[in-house]
Amino acid sequence: MNAEPRPALGSGARRTTGERRRSRWVAAAELGLISSTFSTIVSQLFAARIGRDAAVDWMTVAAIPARDWAISSEPSWSAILTGIAFHQWADFSWALFFFGVLGRWTEDLRPVTILMLALPWAVFSSGMEWFVLVPLFPFWQPLFTLQQPYWIGLLVHASSALMYPLFARLRWRAGTAPGRDVRFTNMWSTGAVAVVALLGITALFGSRGYELPWMGRDRDLDQAYIRHMTAHHAQGIELAQVAAARAQDPHLRKLAMLMVASQAGEVRIFENWWLSWFDTEMPDCSTEERAAMPGFLTAAEMRQVKTAPPDQFDTLFVETMSKHHRGAVRMANRMWHSGGDLRLRIMAHAIRHEQQGEIALMRGTSGVAAVVTAFRNMLGDNVN
To answer: Structural domain of residue 159, as residue ranges?
Structure first.
């Protein structure tokens, strides 16, 4: 069966090389706006479903170009909007690269072929950001790579790349796109709108305490983990708040603020999940439970940090918070390897990566060492 011919532009005259190049770059720019906006919306709506606080994630992204300015104990609107803008610029740039710079090989691909390339491209582009472009040249910012596991960026890039098949429609003027491209892209656009609507409804119900039901295998295990990690985080927030006010090193103060923001966001998610899944208030942990938690600090240890002389505070805080974080990592490891609700396990994997990464950041890890540490933290059960 003969392939459907590509129509010519305008009155039927054959398009010149310049016209093809212009149409390619214009379509790439249009596709970049669509794909980056789609991934932003999906990320915002889906984040809490897997235990992510979208506002904290956007703040972390904003810290790539804006450094410590973006970080605060409660994500500001300016930091959130900066993070979204930077993310959209990055996704827009990847679309331009794929269909503009590489247009010689990609401009005539059929939508289905582009779709088959979407996931490999997402793996490549998110990997370049996580392993090279952000922690090394040109940004030299280790925070993003150490604080967020690679798979988060992969999910974001995959949602963006899923819009790439629309390029096959955008590069032709109205009324001249091949029929098969029109039918496929119409179907694909409708599906994308339906996905956004579904995620929006799910997020709306979730924000009102109606998440999808609990789906674990051991209710007692999952309940114990949520209760214990909530109590553990509460102490971590208290300790980080002290450092946000007292640390002598400005960068350590900002890192402490990030700890407050990230753990407070995770506590809110735990509380929402508990209420939604178990339809009751979360019981507080007993004194015995707290004492048995790995890394949970005694009252004397907390008092020692709070009353430390200014010239000794930073060193003591790093030592004490590292101990606290290592305990949280052990708790998260157990959940990650358990038969708990998948959402809890995914969140636990992110928590263990985040807290090991923060230990490395408190020690000043950067450059290639940060990439190696982050890669090891993501894949192994290491406790720094």
So the answer is: 19-207
